[in-house]
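Late entry, evening session. Most of the bench is empty. Finally got around to the prediction I had been postponing all week. Sequence below, unchanged from the version circulated by S.P.
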Amino acid sequence: MSFDNLLFGLEIAVHPANLLAAFLGVLAGNLVGVLPGIGPIGAAAILFPLTLTMDPTSGVIMIAGIYFGSQFGGAITAILLRIPGEASSIAAMADGNAMAKAGRGGAALGIAILGSFVAGTLAVVGVTLFTPLLTGVALAFRQPELFALTAGGLLVVSTVVGKGGVRSVLPMLWGALFASIGQDLLSGSARFSFGVRELYDGLGVEAVAIGMFGIAELVLMSAAIQRSTFIKDIRIREMFPNRRELRRAAPAWGRGGALGFFIGLLPGPSSVLSAFMAYKVERSISRRKDEFGKGAPEGIAGPEAANNAAATAGVVPILGLGIPFSATLAFMLAAMTSHGVTPGPLLMSNNPDIYWGVIAAMYVANIMLVLLNIPLINMWVRILLVPQGLLIPIILVLATYGAFVSELSMFALFTVLGFAALALVMTITGFDLAPFLLGFIVAPMVEMYGRQALQVGGGDPAYLISGAIAPAIWAVVLCVLVVPPVLRLATSRRQREEILEGADL
């Protein structure tokens, strides 16, 4: 039954408009991955206004393509230049760059490309098999459960994305506060508009995101422009690993793909965590531990497979639960809500075209990664040679144009500048930006489900934790928030006691 649904999704994914959206997303994701500093969040922010002009399925597919494309694009610079375009590319950087210095840079890129494809295939199969479990619990979710899921999930994600603690929770609350500007969700009355007519409809997600993750990042890039490094051309035949490399990489692809899939279902920076965990697993079970860091194929295959599988599996929580576990995936949520589509447990029954279309498009995007990167590898190499001083003005024009087109208002440009300034201040003072965007996008859903639950419960707050599922969700949230600090406190106290005992002796 699930594979019948996947076939239905493939019919949607191969529609010309959706294929074009996936192609543009993967292409843009590859590009920003190759250019260190911009990142997938900045690319998603710049291209987000374009998704609003599309069909909701096409818009979500484009954001997913950006996410997947950037995962591999970052590996190109990590392998060739030892400059990771993405944090998830750091794990494979040492062995990849060592192979490149030994004249096997093309083979290292080939191992990364094939690993991404194998892991993506395994992850799509896993997602297809995992979906019936979500379908079974979907009908049990009422307003209290949805409120617990969104509010609790936002609290958990805001503490694990970034540095954690106050520097992550406060930005999440600030994002929620800015999201409350505009019309009340239920009464329709204006809130915090201060008589400014442009604020009656609230702040646009695209303007806020472009300002914080586009313009602000460009300012930081311009303050540290680097010269390009010479890179030699790579022939297509050089990108295929030899038998020995293939024999060592193939098992690592499977292990990394399986590990990344399960980690991708959990909150937090799953692509980064899975990549480092996969590297650690490969090194711990290898009989050639001394080769790691010096060009071991497993050191590339495992991490690259893991971060791609995690990226694929990370779409399940946002489609099936309505919770984005990263700032980039939050744009998928924004693309759906902007079109009036509500993600969550009922999405697969209410909008099966979007749910299965996006899942099938992820597999199509993996195929595109292979077809694009093998023939275009030298184009990415040439882009690496373009000075950032020339690229920054082009990206700046695209970003500001996207913000203006999204609302056809000069006020949107003022919003972009204002949030760019806020992002710079937050960055300088050490606060995380990703929780701000998560709070800005998810908080309206928390408010809607919470107020609906209170209406159904006659205003009784106890109704928010009624039933069996909502209390269980809150118990899990409490454990995630409380247990780690308690363990750290106990460990530090034990260490102090051991130091004092040693001093007494």
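Two things to note before I forget:
The radius of gyration is 23 Å.
The mean pLDDT is 77.
Will write this up properly tomorrow.
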